[in-house]
Design a protein that fits this description.
The complex is a heterodimer of chains A (408) and B (185).
Chain A: H1 3-25, H2 29-36, H3 40-48, H4 55-65, H5 69-72, H6 81-91, H7 96-120, H8 139-154, H9 164-170, E1 175-179, E2 185-192, E3 196-202, H10 207-221, E4 229-232, H11 241-254, H12 257-270, H13 277-287, H14 291-300, H15 308-314, H16 319-325, H17 340-351, H18 357-363, H19 368-379, E5 381-384, E6 390-393, H20 397-407
Parallel strand pairs in A: 1-3
Antiparallel strand pairs in A: 2-3, 2-4, 5-6
Chain B: E1 4-8, H1 10-19, H2 22-29, E2 31-36, H3 37-42, E3 45-50, E4 53-58, H4 61-66, E5 70-73, H5 80-87, H6 92-104, E6 108-109, H7 113-122, E7 128-129, H8 131-142, H9 146-159, H10 171-178
Parallel strand pairs in B: 1-2, 1-6, 2-5, 6-7
Antiparallel strand pairs in B: 3-4
Helix pairs in contact in B: 1-9, 2-8, 5-6
Classes of the chains: A alpha+beta (408), B alpha/beta (185).
Chain lengths: 408, 185
């Protein structure tokens, strides 16, 4: 490629980034042009990549848009696809004005993920699971079928899945981000060939709700992948077919009928009078789902009488009180916004001196001190001493040698 | 005493603030630090050990500026071209600081390995100084007792989450004295 075409491409990419940054700031070309004391046609030409932006103009535009010049100068075009996909879903979502910037955040996070892969030269393989055919099946049957096939594909057996987020990130290749979504919104899903499959879950929801939401979005990823989804909690609207399908996927993926039936029958054998509410609470804890979800699942499998949950609720049953009595501690919600692999890539890029500390802090959505703490956390390893005690060993030797070579 | 202007990036500012002997280190080295506005915005906190645990403390830039310990500068119009060029690779604070350093031939205090790598690869005419060198100079000139030296190094380690990498000047000296094992400079 010639220098001239390189320059043209760089101007084009910068122009698109400037346009995306302006739009995200909610500014019109006329407003920005007036602020910049330039003709609107000049700004149009800059955004089209037809006119080179001068350094002082770029600095001023970055200030206006609240962006780092460093971010605007990235070599790759902005990932606008996700926001575009959500436009339809947003029309029927509650609190769409609150959701809009969060979708923008999801897109930026996905873009940063790609940038880290580019910097470290560790591209994701993006070997996604197949899209399972759902035509001709009821949504509930299609969701259950996809869940069973997906468990078989991953070799998961029929037991509980404890590290669902890790599984989705590591084995399925989805990019899972924690977002501070409105309380009525459980999760988001969107897919783009370039960016990959992205899931956002609500970091403010309880742990069991989060796991259900993750499984639900996973269901979208293997069935209605090309359609962006905003998952709203039941009670806020009628549940359309694709949502019922994802719900069925979540139910069957988290609580597969064969394994659950076996565990339930084991319970019956040890308590011939039938399962007590305490048994059901313990079962829900094993599968890390809510007590309500477990009881409704058992009703659906006809292992307990239909209406059991309604009766318990009418009798004043409280799952939280039952857990306290049984000394079953509630699991902490997942508050981590960034995928584990994303954090590793960011720290690796920093340790290899491929990015600066300021860039690291931005990738990690924290300040300098927070970034240093993350580096220390990931660079130290847990190890067992010869006395069997867990100790923390400073600095991974591989990282250390990379560090030394890079710093020269 | 005439102090030499030395640009400092956010890495160094946090380290020096965490040492809690900013003035002493600056004087022992004969430096007054020049910070860009972006650097003052980015270098905000360090930890201080309290009986109740580590407490996040905000770096008081106003106080440092009022006492003449820092000077805040923005890049001049003729430096913006270099800033934008460097910002393709470095964060804005680092790129601004480097642009000023190159244009005004001012020494640059940094521990940022990304920035150091960039300066070396681009063969930029910049003289670099590291936190470990500055603290070592303070220790050599002021000859603090071992317990104070160890305490200062621990403050930086805990308060800024910083220990110089093995490739940094005086890294062995730092680690030895942080554990209180030797006072030789």
């Amino acid at each position: 490629m010639t220098d001239a075409s390189d320059t043209a491409m760089a101007s084009s990419v910068l122009g698109r980034r400037l346009q995306a940054a302006r739009q995200e700031r909610g500014l019109t070309q006329a407003e920005v042009a007036a602020e910049m004391r330039m003709a609107r046609t000049t700004l149009v030409a800059i955004e089209k990549g037809e006119r080179r932006v001068r350094p002082e103009e770029l600095v001023e535009l970055a200030r206006l848009y609240g962006r780092q010049v460093n971010e605007l100068l990235r070599a790759t075009p902005p990932a606008e696809a996700l926001s575009a996909q959500f436009r339809v879903a947003l029309t029927s979502a509650p609190e769409s004005s609150t959701l809009q910037p969060l979708i923008g955040e999801l897109q930026l996070l996905a873009e940063d993920y790609g940038e880290l892969e580019r910097i470290t030269r560790r591209p994701s393989s993006h070997e996604y699971p197949p899209v399972y055919a759902t035509e001709g099946l009821r949504p509930e049957a299609a969701g259950a079928d996809a869940a069973i096939r997906e468990r078989i594909r991953l070799g998961l057996g029929d037991g509980p899945i404890l590290q669902l987020r890790d599984l989705m990130e590591r084995d399925v290749g989805l990019r899972v981000f924690g977002l501070s979504l409105p309380s009525a919104v459980a999760g988001l899903f969107a897919f783009d060939e370039e960016v990959g499959g992205c899931v956002g879950f609500n970091i403010n929801h309880p742990n069991e709700r989060q796991r259900w939401s993750l499984a639900h979005e996973y269901g979208h990823a293997v069935t209605t992948r090309t359609r962006a989804e905003i998952t709203v909690l039941a009670g806020y609207r009628r549940i359309p077919a694709n949502e019922r399908l994802a719900e069925a996927f979540a139910e069957n993926f988290l609580m597969p009928s064969s394994g659950l039936t076996r565990r339930f029958n084991d319970l019956i054998r040890s308590s011939p009078e039938g399962p007590t509410p305490a048994d059901l609470v313990q079962l829900s804890d094993i599968y890390q789902v809510s007590v309500q979800a477990m009881i409704l699942r058992l009703e659906g499998l006809r292992l307990i009488p239909s209406g059991t949950w309604d009766e318990l609720e009418a009798a004043g049953f409280s799952a939280n009180e039952a857990k306290t009595l049984l000394d079953i501690g509630g699991r902490e919600p997942d508050r981590s916004r960034l995928p584990r692999h994303y954090r590793y890539l960011a720290v690796e890029a920093y340790v290899r001196a491929l990015i600066t500390e300021g860039q690291l802090a931005r990738f990690l959505r924290t300040d300098r001190l927070g970034a240093r703490e993350t580096v220390q956390e990931l660079m130290s390893r847990l190890a067992l001493t010869n006395l069997g005690e867990v100790t923390r060993v400073e600095m991974d030797p591989l990282f250390q040698s990379r560090l030394e070579r890079s710093a020269g | 005493m005439d102090l030499q202007d030395v640009l400092a990036d956010a890495c160094v500012v946090i380290n020096l603030a965490a040492s809690q002997i900013w003035d002493e280190v600056a004087e022992a080295n004969g430096y007054r630090f020049v910070l860009t506005r972006k650097v003052t915005e980015e270098s905000q906190y360090f930890y201080v050990a309290r009986p109740s645990g580590l407490e996040r403390v905000k770096i008081d830039m106003q106080d440092l500026e009022a006492r003449g310990r820092i000077k805040i500068e923005d890049p001049l119009p003729e430096e913006l071209g270099s800033f934008v060029e460097y910002a393709q690779h470095l964060d804005d604070g680092e790129a601004e600081t480097l642009a000023i350093s190159v244009h005004r031939s001012i020494e640059l205090a940094t521990d940022d390995l990304g920035a150091i790598r960039f300066v070396n690869e681009q063969q930029l005419p910049v003289k670099l100084v590291r936190t470990s060198s500055m603290v070592h100079t303070w220790a050599s000139r002021m000859n603090p007792n071992q317990s104070l030296l160890t305490e200062v190094l621990l403050r930086i380690s805990q308060g800024a989450r910083f220990v110089p990498p093995k490739t940094a000047p005086h890294a062995d000296w730092w680690v030895r004295n942080m554990s209180g094992e030797g006072s030789t400079a």
